[in-house]
Fold these 2 entries.
Entry 1:
Amino acid sequence: MYDITIIGAGVVGCSIARALSKYDLSVCVLEKDNDVASGTSKANSAIVHPGEDPIPGTLKAKLNVRGNAMFDKLSEELDFPFKRNGSFVLCLSENEIPELKEYSKRGIANGVKLEFLNRQQALEKEPNLSDEVVAALFFPTGGIVCPYEMTIALAENAFTNGVEFKLETEVANIIKEKDKYTIETNKGNIESKIVINAAGIFSDVMNNFVSEKKIKIIPRRGQYCLFDKVQGDMIKSTLFQLPTKLGKGVLVTPTVDGNLLVGPDAEDLEDKYDLETTQEGLDFIISKARKSVKDIPMRDVITSFAGLRAHTGGDFIIGEVEDAPNFINAAGIESPGLTSSPAIGEMIEEIIVKKLNPRKNENFNPIRKGVPKFRELSNEERRKLIAENPQYGKIICRCETVTEGEIVNAIHRPLGARTLDGVKKRTRAGMGRCQSGFCSPRVVDILARELKVERTDITKFGGHSNILIGKDKEQVK
Amino acid sequence: MQEYDIVIIGGGPAGLAAAVSVKEQGIDNILILERDNQLGGILNQCIHNGFGLHTFKEELTGPEYAQRFIDKVEEMKIPYKLNTMVLDLNKDKVITAVNEEDGIIEIKAKAVILAMGCRERPRGAINIPGSRCAGIYTAGTAQKFVNVEGYMPGKEVVILGSGDIGLIMARRMTLEGAKVKAVVELMPYSSGLKRNIVQCLDDFNIPLLLSHTVTDIKGKDRLEGVSIAKIGKDRKPVKGTEQYIPCDTLLLSVGLLPENELSRKAEVKLSKVTGGAEVDESLQTSIEGIFACGNVLHVHDLVDNVTTESINAGKSAAEYIRGKSCKGEKIEVIATDGVRYTVPKYINVNNVDKVLDVRFRVGNVYKDSYISVYFDDAREMHIKKRILTPGEMETVKLTKAHFEKYPNCKRITIKVEGE
């Protein structure tokens, strides 16, 4: 029996897990996929919002602003990429200037620093803005982050501090009993005093197992295009357009790794597994992005992808469920969920402390060191690293300059990589301009060697996503 | 810092031929840097035959062709470093490289020959919508799995793009036991060599669907099928022509891009058309003492042409080391009216011995047309071509006599013309 079981190892679940690892509690995280950061947390805009957008007084407003302020310390403790690059909200027509001013009031009410810029002032900061931009709001506290590396960092740190992770463990039902919950999964039953629902787009399903107060999460798909690093310095800040009813609209942003990212659109679906991109969606985001910046260099697109947001139409749903004591929701976490996640962790921590009044975990270590990043080191540091371990002298992914040492490290660290995508999320091998054309055969080899399995067992992301189906000529009839 | 006269970056067909050529010119203080664990480059995975008809007058496989040059490199005792990745090259020709034994290596070279080859365009470059499941590979990646590692990426295959690697892989996958259901080509013509269409598709009854493309990719974990559709005159899929082909593998052969990350770092001027360096008759780039040859310069369809070009690059680099200046007045070669680019782009007449090969590709299919060469406004060559296609590289030979006939020529124009 666990004190606490968290369902979902996305950025919210892992933020909560890490916050709770400060206490002497038995905590378990259940994840249906074979790695952390496999859902919404791996495919989103990767933005740390200033907090100007949510309606004042909502949880979204409060947790966004609080979460944003937590990123400097958190990224330093956990060694994940984060940068305060500032963000713009662009106004594309003289007629909309009153709306821009109205919009700025929300930011002011939420306590967010902002500047009102005319076209000239905006161009001084961002020379590649489109001709349509007439004015802008600038938010110096806006930032960018690597969302999957952040999630992995939180998970590793939670794990190191004693939290248990059960991967490929899918919840089939949750039974409310007298003093506990029994969670039925594909890997057997798990008992827990408290259940925390951080199941992302499936958080309605979890809630509805135990509560009569039904909620509905709509999977809202957003599509993105990612551009080659040669375009990463086209802009410095994140560019939003004045929001519409469907959310914050299409943004253009540099990523922390130096690419350019464009997206998302917003399309409400039925299927919670539909991560397909569509021609219409991709065409739409590109046409919108062209209103923000002068030139969208389509020849430099290296990949496109889609993510699903847990949309409810209302505020975040956080707290103990009325008719299910000790079942705590962290549900409906759509944008600004990534930004808010550290603050959601903190909020759940307060609830748990109030409930259980647990002792501190004396051994809690807030520090996590990531995989060394060869590409970011000085030549002196590289020499030292290679002298200690020659594998850091062998480049496997040439586009992103990732060494064998980094890949082996990613496989053998806590909650290490077991798939091609797992390696990619932890090291960026395969994330560059050739999109794993050159390195995938070598990464398959390294995974098979280090995990002591056959090459045909290696998958892209678990399940039946095998890379190879057998040996040559086996199929010859 | 180590010092070399000439460093050759890349130990594939281009780098090997350039190195042998440099050494034959009597320059000994040279080094080949190769990122893979063996010399030979992409030829190592090209186990089909058809290489070397021009160079050796016989049909070799890729590894055999490479081995001829590797043997020469060994015989001539040309030093090379394997598993060595060049991380940086600047315009002063200082190279930073890394490997397991030496750690970080810094080298000052008097001349550098760029021979890094090319890479395949990934799915993103053509932005095919749909699922991002497993089972989608570039043709070259699949070739490596099948030919070098001995593993099959799938058994029911659709190939998008009819570039040479795609055609070759259609045959290879068939021979290894897979069913290739179709080769789908966006353009109304194949970008591969005619002989490959005959030998790799026709001989195995594999359909080539011209003016078609993949419009959707289905599959949760592993690929389950693709939708293809006809392409209209506006180059967009025609509604109502979609058909679904169940398959577990999609191979992409949608173009090759010269790999010029290092060239960019060295501030070498690159062509917007080829993605390779702009070079002169000596295959020197915009940076003095930095030369380029092979697929890093422009994508070739025959390795024999790579070899010829690389031998020339080696000679030029050796002459540069001996003090020959590559400066001086240059004629610009203009590619227009159907001709996409030329290599070289600039010609210093003083450096042309007898004949200069100018290589280029056309941008469309032309039947019964002419390749014309103008020295300023005078049409000097007008060569009848029964067929010109983007898939086959063309050559015109400019002779010393041409240049002597037009001593004040400022520019040469190459174009496709009618009668």
Note: The longest helix of chain B spans residues 303-321.
Entry 2:
Amino acid sequence: MRIIIVGAGEVGLQLATFLSAENIDVVVIDKNKEKLKRLSDELDIALIEGEGGAPSVLEEAGADEADILLAVTDMDETNMIACLVAKVMFRIPRNVARIRNLEYFSNEVLLNSLGINPAISPEIEAARAVNRLIEVPFASDVEDFEDGAVKVIGFRIPSDSKLIGKAFKNLDLAKPKILIGAIKRGDKIIIPSGDDTLKKNDIIFLPVQRENIDLVCSSIGGVTTPVKRIMIAGGGRIGFYVAKTMEERNINVKIIEMDSERCKFLLKALKKSVILNGDISDQKLLEEENINDMDVFAAISNNDELNIMASLLAKSLGAKKVITIVNKTDYLPLANNLGIEAVLSPRLITAGTILKYVRDGNILSLTTVAEGQAEIMEAEAKEGSILIGKTLREVELPKKTLIGAIIRNEKVIIPSGNDKIAGNDKLIIFTLQESIKQVEKLLR
Amino acid sequence: MNVAVVFNLVGVVILFSSLFMIVPVLTAFYYGGQDLSALGISFLITFLGGLLLYFLTKSQKKVELKHRDGFAVVTFAWIAMAMFGALPYIISGVSLSFTDAYFESMAGFTTTGASVFSNIEEFPKGILLWRSLTQWIGGMGIIVFSLAILPMLGAGGMQLFKAEVPDIGVEKLKPRIIDMAKSLWYIYAGLTAILALLLWIFGMNLFDAVCHAFTTMATGGFSTKSSSIAYFQSGYIEVIITIFMFLACINFSLLFYALRGKLSRLAKSSEFKFYCSVVVVSIIIVTLNIRASEHLSILDALRYASFQVVSIMTTGFTTADYEMWPVLSQVLLIFLMLFGGMVGSTGGGMKQVRILLMFKQAYRELYQLIHPHAVTALRLDGKNVDKETLGGIWGFLFLFVLIAVTATLCMAALGLDIITSASTVISAMSNVGPALGEAGPSDNYSTIPTAGKWVLMFCMLVGRLEIYTVILLFVPIFWQK
């Protein structure tokens, strides 16, 4: 398979890193030589210097043989032209574009005629991720499957949890049954077996049916009170989208925005939110606005450093849950270690969303966790797959791979070794990056 | 430098190159030669040596290969490979000294083709085949070969590839290095097979045809006969070998496209055009020059001149004793050695593209003296050449000259005359083989003092790995943490 990536920025780098590790032929195009050089030092891919929308450049990149084009520069227009050229001149079957401008993004006729399928907006993806996190207050990571009916939730094990130190096979949580699909311990990700035990500060990932979220939360020892008040630090695009959704959910929103012009826009566009003009890391302002009563403090301005500082401040002033957006991927491990509950990277999220469209047909949905070390995918067991009719014990899964849930008739079954896979079942599979190719083979 | 990781990979490379030794073992078995046991033992030692190194340095942790580690792996792998490659000569007794055996092996792997042996016709077939095979392995490079076959070198393989193949003007044919290494080896092996077939058809016996095909495509120059290609006294063979020596000096990326029907790539390449002009002009000068002095017919003169010109550009076969030729031709041949083949070919030397860019740069300087305000850019095949690349070439040329001068001084200090000292060093650094003076086309390197042989071995390795990779290990900052 050959994939052409236009744009060697942070998103392009992430995508190239994922894909080249899976033995896919990757060609990256960018007009900035310095950016390309950074990639050439790290990855085994082909690099082409030039304008991504230029037919001659795409031809040089082997667009004739390409299966997918991912246009992810930060210029909407470049991405759109690249997709158009790819569609019209090279007949590339799938063209994904990163589009920021809402006017383009929401115009389906335009996108279709440009051959863009689908368009991905980093801000909207990030806002959705923030929304998912707000929905499950205790989670550090929430990924949706089946339109949110099934979620894979990452929980940080509280230090006083009664689960610590017990082997998984001895965990007796009568109701509801849980199965841990992956554990993040420090920087490492573990796909557990029955003998593994939980440690303090582990983050566990489990598939949960939407109705059971509260039950599962409390059985682990987490808080389940629903969110009523939220403070959003940073009224940019992401902040605006989040605020809008929260208003629809009848949650009290306060937004702090530094730029007074932007505040005026927010005032016009939002109905009930309290708009505050000020510095998001201003302690006085936070205290004045009752930060200690906030269920969630979301630092989602464009400034990474400010976001991290504001989050730490909010945490120390008593905000119950803090969500931080960090753009620079280099800061992610650091931010994770600071005790901030949830750290999001719009670029990683975008790269993860785009990855879904690169996958095989049987994979319905896919998401990466822990900086892309593990993938969680939802896949359909089609008629004719070797999986059908076998119990989970009989299925020979690749190393470090685990079936975390079976979705049958919109019900989640947390499987044991004796459960059989039936036709048209959907499976939630946890796997490490190195085993993805084998998993894809298994599903075919 | 991460010692464990580096030597782990060196172990893999040795293990891999040991497998090549099976070929001469089988040959010796087939011909029933006395060298069978020597080759068998060499194979076992190399295999076990590689295995031991691999397991001794194997670590549980997965460590990433850094840039600098890549250079170290490649250099040490070549040194070790040449050492193990010398075993057959020592154990079989064809060489009585370690230095001579190592010299022969290093001259093999680096495709220099400088030999210390004088009576090679008497050597057993297995040894002779191994001698030719070392050149074939070294021609494209053991790392490139390993990458094509061993997936375990994986992503770190890219660092190794870069250390063995410098990246100026070498286009990445395929997005992934493994695929690229494979295509390179398909071309290489394919052309070798065709050449062997042709030589067989036109009069060589199968054994000689295979050996000469190995050393021709690698631009190596080892022959199974003391008098080299002249032994066969066949115009056809000379023409065939001339053509393939010429092909082997072409950038393999261009050959790749040419074989896929995109000949225009070849025609558009300025390096190729430059290379052709150098070859044609040199052939004309030498032809006219030797026709007058040697009283040859124009056709005979052309035959000797074209063979020698193409050959001296880095292969080093001989059909005539060019030391009897006029001085003009001799000096010209020495310059051609320095020019070498095209970048990305199996040929050695400074590489045509570097010389071409220096010409262009010199012209630009002159142009700018006349038009001080002119905006100029250095372009190669329609693309701008950036300052770093140019700087890299300047550095390369300077180091090349510096090492050549230093090595020549060393040789002179050992009591060799100036012609021998300078020409052997240039020949070794350019991976040619025959030189002038005591190591001329009708002599061999056996009379060079032991210390001199080590100097030349160093020159060969430095030349084959294009200076930087080896020299880096001698720079103090390389070893600083």
Note: The interface with chain A takes residues 67, 155, 157-158, 172, 174-179, 386 of chain B (CB under 8 Å).
